Each structure stands twice: as structure tokens, then as C-alpha cells.
């Protein structure tokens, strides 16, 4: 399902001394089935932006359309329950929201909350737990005996069991160790590819944004200042630096190397293998063949 | 060299019917040293940290801080005064309504006279470059700034040892760089003993020595350069090598005759530069 922002402005605490403009006339299009990363400095409006997609926030001006549902600043809020069934939200540190006695019950809570009968909810919960790779021997244990990475996967299974078409991920790997990070990112990559899920990921990690997504939106001062393919966005290094953002480590390294070698700018690469190949070309062929 | 921390045969488990979280650990830390303790989530790192200031006591073995046994109730407050801790979540560590109040809180709690507090407070804030935020409310600060205020609160108590337990893992890249700079300053300029507990190997690059933990045991010990020589091992236990080390290995495999084990991007750039000059 396509997501569209039309002239969306959001003001926190309007007409108070704490009034703050968080989104400033935002126009955006996120196509169905895409994997979009949203990057930007702390306070750039990333979280405010994504909270409009499932109706957690209502625009102060303009309108947001997700599939057939529209939230317009000037109209009453539509049926948000229907919207939230379609748009799942994995918050930061989602494991803090686990509460049930057993893992399976916790995962069932989401679908049952949307009126799915118990038997069907259990079937979905089992499917979801299999998807996130939690063995069935765990299902009847307490979620609180799991490691941090496992707890996060249970929380994600809870969102998947609702069968959303869109999932919003707010810093999905924060606080996890490297292996936990890899597992979560591979999981979402798989979900995106196998089930055609639309993914919207808020992240501070430029490397992840570059490697996994097909669209990168750069937020600054409450506006999307770039929205394009990763290789296009990260080629605009100077502009990114100006708003306090990094480029992926692969490019940071090649920048240092080309500066030392006196070579010109290199087109963006995001994997270690590509970086190594570029380094070798630089070593062998000099500058022309890069 | 003065051994400021001595751990001998330390074992700990949270419950009798659960496995040991720490198994027979022995190591020591010299005064002024920076030791990084690395391991994946659940490897026992944080439990170890809690043993080092007597928040929990060894069930087997001993922990000595500055010569004091943490099991001795009479000296436990001497131990805690020597060891300052910064935890993972910057939002869980604030009690004061302003940055100034927050730094004063710890001193007040430790019975430091008012005149002395007035003297130490600006010094501590200057130290972490937060003096212009003295009157700010903590919730208006960024994550990295909050962690620096937490460090100022500790510095004001003049500890000998600072333990940072995953203190950078919840920060954005800029906050992380900020904290690593502050840690280096603490250790190099102020000669404080620093223990950084982390799963981020790029943070551990700056340590003098590293201890690698897995399933409650010390599985490796050495300088970062030594430890990064075995990338397969580190990856097997769920850790990720620093970018420069990974790239160095891939280049070597592809036939680039690298000799030095470069740890940082700068080192690798310099090595490649030298290599090209000799081609």
C-alpha cells in the first residue's frame, strides 16, 4: 500500500511557550513494496514523520494517505484501528513492551486485540515465531528469561502476527550486539523480499540504510531534503556533512584514501568486497581506471 | 606498577538452579591502564562490572579494589568511592532538575562540604565540556551530552577507576565519537584507570589491553592488535571486527601484500600509501 504525505506540517504544543515546528510542509511518496530508510540528525523530525503513518500523530496541516485511508488535518480522524492493523510499528526497544506469562500468549495479544479468534491467533503466533527463528521449545516459557536479542525477536513476532502490509521500524537494532544486529537486519530483508512487505526504517546507521533500502529519505529541520536511491543520496557527501550526517564507513574510508592518493571522487560503494576491489584498482591502475 | 584491581577465581550465579554467569575469572588491572572487556550480550560482562564495585559479591573467589576486599562490609564504601560507574541508558541516570544539580547530587550524597562542592562542580563540567549547559534541564540534552554529564558526576567524586558499562551503545554516531574522545581524555590526560565494557570493537581499539569474554569465561587476553589477529574467532562468538581490520583481511585475501595489522582507517590508509609508493 502506497503512502503519501501532502503538505504535512506538525506543530507540538501549539499556542504555548513550548510550541515547536517538527514537520514543515512535507511532501513524500513511499511506494508499496519498497524498503525506505529515513536518516537524519536527532531532532530532525524522523520520529514525528513516521508516527503520522499509522495515525499516532495527526497533521497540524496537510494530509497523510496510507492505502485507502486518509488522515486530514481538517477532518475527523478516520478509523484508526483499520489503519493500525495494516501498518505495524516496531518501536525502539520493543522488548520493553512484552508483558505476558508466556511467549506464545504475548505474540497472540496483537492479533486478538484486532478481533482475530484465539485459535487463528495461535496459528499466526506460531507462524510468526517460526519466521523470527525462535524454536518451539521456547514458546511456553516466560519472555523475560530470554536474551535481549531473543526478546526483540518475540516483540517483532507480535507485530508480524497482526499481518500488516507495512512495518515501521524505529532504530530496530539499537543496543543489540553485532550478531543480534545482523540477525534482525537479515530477518527484515527476508520479510521484505519473500512477503513483499513495505518497510520503513528509521536509522542512525548509514551503512544499514545504504545496504538494505531501495530509497533513502534524509530529514533535516523538519523537511525531507533528499529522497532517492542510496547511491544517489550518498554521492551528495558534502550536503550530508553540512547537515551533520555521515556517509557509510566504506565511503568514509575511500575518501581518506583518495585524498591521500590525490585521486578524484569515487562513485559510492557499500560493501567491503566492493571497497576492496576499488582499493585494488586504485593501487594498480592509478587514478584513471577507478 | 600498582595493581588497582585484582580478581581471583571469581564465580557468580544469580540463582542456585541456574548456570554460572561468571566462571573462575582471574585478572588484574594496573593503575592508569585502559582495559576493554568485550563480549556479546549475555556473556557476563555486566555482572562482572557489578562485582567490581561491590554491587554484587563473589560467591567464589575474591575481588580486591585498591587493596580492599569487596566482601569486607567495613570498607565497601571506600571501594565504591574509588569506583565510578556509567551505565548504558543515559535517561536512567538523572536525578537532578538541572545539570548542575545532578552533578552536585553525588557529592552531596558523599558528604562533601559545600565549599568543596562549589570548587569541584565547574571543574567537573569543564572536564566533559558541558560548562555552558550547567543550568540546562537534562531532558533537553542529546544522548551523548547526557552521558558526559553522568561522567562529570563521577569525576566530581574523584574516583580512581571509571567503569563504562556499554555507555555508548544507545548513542547516535556523533554521541559515540564524543564519548570515546572523553574516555581517551580521562585515561590519557587525567591518568584515570578506565574499564570499558562493550561489544563494539571499534571502541576497544583505543584500549591498552583487552579481555574477551564468552559464556562467563575469559577466552582471550591481549593488546587490541593481538586480539584482532583472530577474526574468525571473534566472529564466531558474535562480535564484529572494526571496519579497517575487516577490509585489511579482505585485501590480503585478494593478494594485496599488507603486513601490519592496521586497526584504524588512518593506519590502513597509510599502509596502502606506503605500498603504492614502493610499487
TrEMBL record, chain A:
This protein's record includes keyword Ligase: no
Keywords per UniProt: ATP-binding, Cell membrane, Membrane, Nucleotide-binding, Translocase, Transport
UniProt xrefs under InterPro entries: AAA+_ATPase, ABC_transporter-like_ATP-bd, ABC_transporter-like_CS, ABC_transpr_CbiO/EcfA_su, ECF_ABC_transporter_ATP-bd, EcfA2, P-loop_NTPase
Record's subunit section: Forms a stable energy-coupling factor (ECF) transporter complex composed of 2 membrane-embedded substrate-binding proteins (S component), 2 ATP-binding proteins (A component) and 2 transmembrane proteins (T component).
Annotated localization: Cell membrane
Pfam families: ABC_tran
Gene: ecfA2
SUPFAM superfamilies in UniProt: P-loop containing nucleoside triphosphate hydrolases
GO cellular component: ATP-binding cassette (ABC) transporter complex
Broad class of the protein's primary localization: membrane
UniProt enzyme class: translocase
Family: Belongs to the ABC transporter superfamily. Energy-coupling factor EcfA family.
Source species taxonomy: Bacteria, Bacillati, Bacillota, Bacilli, Bacillales
Domain of life from the UniProt record: Bacteria
Bilayer topology term: Peripheral membrane protein
Function: ATP-binding (A) component of a common energy-coupling factor (ECF) ABC-transporter complex.
Domain ABC transporter: 3-246
Enzyme Commission code(s) on record: 7.-.-.-
GO MF entries: ATP binding; ATP hydrolysis activity; ATPase-coupled transmembrane transporter activity; cobalt ion transmembrane transporter activity
Gene3D superfamilies according to UniProt: P-loop containing nucleotide triphosphate hydrolases
Name of the protein: Energy-coupling factor transporter ATP-binding protein EcfA2
Keyword ATP-binding on entry: yes
UniProtKB/TrEMBL annotation, chain B:
Keywords, sorted A to Z: ATP-binding, Cell membrane, Membrane, Nucleotide-binding, Translocase, Transport
Cellular-component GO terms for this entry: ATP-binding cassette (ABC) transporter complex
Membrane topology: Peripheral membrane protein
Principal cellular location given in the protein's record: membrane
Compartments where located: Cell membrane
Molecular function as annotated in GO: ATP binding; ATP hydrolysis activity; ATPase-coupled transmembrane transporter activity; cobalt ion transmembrane transporter activity
Domain ABC transporter positions: 5-240
Annotated TM spans: none
Family: Belongs to the ABC transporter superfamily.
Matching NCBIfam families: ECF_ATPase_1, PRK13635.1, PRK13648.1
Protein known as: Energy-coupling factor transporter ATP-binding protein EcfA1
Organism, as annotated: Sporolactobacillus putidus
Amino acid at each position: 500500500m502506497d503512502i503519501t504525505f501532502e503538505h504535512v506540517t506538525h506543530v507540538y504544543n501549539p499556542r504555548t511557550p513550548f510550541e515547536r515546528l517538527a514537520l514543515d510542509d512535507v511532501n513524500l511518496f513511499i511506494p508499496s513494496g519498497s524498503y525506505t530508510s529515513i536518516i537524519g540528525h536527532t531532532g530532525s523530525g524522523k520520529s514525528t514523520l513516521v508516527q503520522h503513518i499509522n495515525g499516532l500523530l495527526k497533521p497540524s496541516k496537510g494530509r497523510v494517505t496510507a492505502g485507502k485511508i486518509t488522515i486530514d488535518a481538517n477532518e475527523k480522524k478516520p478509523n484508526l484501528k483499520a489503519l493500525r492493523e495494516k501498518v505495524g510499528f516496531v518501536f525502539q526497544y520493543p522488548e520493553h513492551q512484552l508483558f505476558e506469562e508466556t511467549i506464545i500468549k504475548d505474540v497472540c495479544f496483537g492479533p486478538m486485540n484486532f478481533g482475530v479468534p484465539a485459535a487463528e491467533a495461535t496459528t499466526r503466533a506460531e507462524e510468526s515465531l517460526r519466521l523470527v527463528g525462535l524454536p518451539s521449545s521456547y514458546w511456553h516459557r516466560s519472555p523475560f528469561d530470554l536474551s535481549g536479542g531473543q526478546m526483540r525477536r518475540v516483540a517483532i513476532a507480535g507485530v508480524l502476527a497482526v499481518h500488516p502490509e507495512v512495518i515501521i521500524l524505529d532504530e530496530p537494532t539499537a543496543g543489540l550486539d553485532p550478531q543480534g544486529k545482523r540477525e534482525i537486519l537479515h530477518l527484515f530483508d527476508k520479510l521484505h523480499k519473500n512477503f513483499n512487505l513495505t518497510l520503513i526504517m528509521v536509522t542512525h546507521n548509514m551503512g544499514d540504510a545504504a545496504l538494505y533500502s531501495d530509497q533513502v529519505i534524509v530529514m533535516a529541520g523538519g523537511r525531507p531534503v533528499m529522497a532517492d536511491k542510496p547511491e544517489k543520496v550518498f554521492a551528495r557527501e558534502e550536503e550530508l556533512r553540512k547537515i551533520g550526517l555521515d556517509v557509510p564507513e566504506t565511503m568514509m574510508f575511500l575518501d581518506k584514501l583518495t585524498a591521500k592518493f590525490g585521486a578524484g571522487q569515487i562513485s559510492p560503494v557499500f560493501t567491503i568486497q566492493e571497497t576492496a576491489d576499488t582499493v585494488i584498482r586504485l593501487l594498480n591502475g592509478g587514478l584513471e581506471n577507478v | 606498577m600498582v595493581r588497582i584491581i585484582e580478581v581471583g577465581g571469581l564465580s557468580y550465579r544469580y540463582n542456585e538452579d541456574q548456570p554460572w554467569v561468571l566462571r573462575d575469572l582471574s585478572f588484574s588491572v594496573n593503575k592508569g591502564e585502559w582495559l576493554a572487556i568485550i563480549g556479546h550480550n549475555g556473556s557476563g560482562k555486566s555482572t562482572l562490572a557489578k562485582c567490581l564495585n561491590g554491587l554484587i559479591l563473589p560467591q567464589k573467589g575474591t575481588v580486591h579494589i585498591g587493596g580492599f576486599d569487596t566482601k569486607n562490609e567495613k570498607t565497601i564504601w571506600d571501594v565504591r568511592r574509588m569506583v565510578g560507574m556509567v551505565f548504558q541508558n543515559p535517561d536512567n541516570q538523572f536525578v537532578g532538575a538541572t545539570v548542575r544539580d545532578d552533578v552536585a547530587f553525588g557529592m552531596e550524597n558523599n558528604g562533601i562540604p559545600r565549599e568543596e562542592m562549589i570548587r569541584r562542580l565547574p571543574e567537573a563540567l569543564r572536564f566533559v565540556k558541558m560548562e555552558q549547559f550547567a543550568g540546562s534541564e537534562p531532558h533537553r540534552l542529546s544522548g551523548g551530552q547526557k552521558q558526559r554529564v553522568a561522567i562529570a558526576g563521577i569525576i566530581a567524586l574523584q574516583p580512581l577507576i571509571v567503569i563504562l558499562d556499554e555507555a555508548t551503545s544507545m548513542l547516535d554516531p556523533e554521541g559515540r565519537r564524543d564519548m570515546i574522545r572523553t574516555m581517551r581524555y580521562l585515561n590519557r590526560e587525567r591518568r584515570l584507570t578506565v574499564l570499558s565494557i562493550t561489544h563494539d570493537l571499534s571502541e576497544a581499539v583505543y584500549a591498552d589491553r583487552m579481555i574477551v569474554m564468552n559464556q562467563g569465561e575469559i577466552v582471550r587476553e591481549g593488546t587490541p592488535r593481538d586480539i584482532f589477529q583472530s577474526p574468525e574467532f571473534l566472529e564466531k562468538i558474535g562480535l564484529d571486527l572494526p571496519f579497517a581490520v575487516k577490509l585489511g583481511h579482505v585485501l590480503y585475501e585478494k593478494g594485496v601484500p599488507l603486513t601490519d595489522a592496521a586497526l584504524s582507517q588512518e593506519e590502513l590508509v597509510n599502509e596502502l600509501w606506503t605500498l603504492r609508493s614502493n610499487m
